[in-house]
Amino acid sequence: MISVMVENSHAHCPNDHTDGGEHSYDSVGSDDGTSEIDLLLPQVSRSGALTLHEQVAAEIRRAIADGEARPGQRIPQARDLAAELGVNTNTVLRALRMLRDEGLVEMGRGRSIRVAGTPERSAVLTRTKELLEFARSQGYERDELIAILGSLQ
Fold this sequence. Notes:
The chain is an alpha+beta fold.
């Protein structure tokens, strides 16, 4: 059974973790030998500066950065996260797609969602995408950029 522990704090800001409380997780074994975790996520703020999907992505990103969710572990399905957070499943899916594009999660067949990378890997992918966009804006093609990077070794 998948459960998501949601922190209920009406004064809790989605990016503020100064409440003194520990964020914790529990691993639940699965049939394929991997572990599935229970995440402690704060309620999303409908009046916050960030959109709902950005808040969900930020909290999962924080859980990965804090070591609550480690590479290879499964996280709860989008519909379960959505139900516990009180948001639409599409909001959670949009957040998960952001995290997938950052290299932090993999979304497999069925509804399997696994932590794929670390915050460091995500930062490298983000910067690489920025470099690619900059190179293209300067007239460089992909192969030319690869050659430049290869010459730096």
